[in-house]
Amino acid sequence: MATPTRPRAVVLGQIGRDLVLVLDELPPGGGAAPVRERHEWLGGKGANQALACRQLGADAALIGAVADDDAGQAALEQAQHDGLDVTGVVRRSNARTALLIDVVAPPGTRRLLEDIGPDVTLTPADVAAVHGLIAGADVMVLQLQQPADALLAAIEVVEGTDVLLVADGAPPDEQVREALLRAGAVLRADQREAALLTGRELAGAPDTLVAAEDLVRRGARAVALSAGADGDVVAWSGGHVVTPLLGEHPVDPTGAGDAATAALAVALSTGESPERAAWWAAAAAAHSVVQAGGRARLDAREVRRAAEEAESASVASLRRRS
């Protein structure tokens, strides 16, 4: 039997240093609190999504920018140790590598502080330099916090090709949103980003579904939007599913969206249906929130097993109600 080919994923997004601080409780203004746990590692949404893609079964390349400093060197070394292709990572002089501070306290609450200078975001020239890397991929994941001109350059590379385009977040402007729809992208957004993506506040799963289906009609291949406590709505041409929030007692929600985005990208790029991909995303998100920090620690077999169990339980519940 032939060994299945691993999909090739490229992830265009932020790379930085994550500092994760776990407290028993957040101090009041002017107060202080001891740190119970401290972690420092490779972070940023782009790096987190690339690592999650790798853990879920794809060969993953990272496209982003770091400074020519010690933190940037450490980030590159960590990414290589993680098995990521870093040929698309740019080193900037006279800059400083992004720093993200994740402050976590019970019950599953966090505060995220970001120091991301414009010098460590991507430019159209950076994208042009890795044209071949992007064009040779099976799936490209775009983190939409990058500058609009760089995003438009990346979309142009894959438009009209067989490269699956998955976009995470809220587009920085209308031009990027229309380009994504024209290219038939898969769109994923959390609750705050969904409001920016759709231009209005969304209340619950039914309202979110209407908005997701509208984006599908406008050209999106599939749309995955958070509906808060109602779970996640995933819509595509001819169908939709609402997946509940899986798992219990989350420690830190920081990595849930990155894990879900990676799962959608890997599942769809390997030929899974949008419905099955939605359950992969829900399971990956649940597995990501059981520890502090956004760095992925996913087991592909465990995620698939959890997704199948959750999907089967949902089908059984629907049958009991009918």
Automatic annotation (TrEMBL):
GO terms for molecular function: kinase activity. It comes from the Bacteria. It holds the Pfam family PfkB. Signal peptide: none annotated. One of its GO terms (cellular component) is cytosol. Transmembrane segments: none annotated. GO terms for biological process: phosphate-containing compound metabolic process. Keywords: Kinase, Transferase. Residues 8-297 form the Carbohydrate kinase PfkB domain. Gene3D superfamilies: 3.40.1190.20. InterPro entries: Carboh/pur_kinase_PfkB_CS, PfkB_dom, Ribo/fructo_kinase, Ribokinase-like. PANTHER family: RIBOKINASE, SUGAR KINASE. Belongs to the carbohydrate kinase PfkB family. This is Carbohydrate kinase. It comes from Aeromicrobium phragmitis.
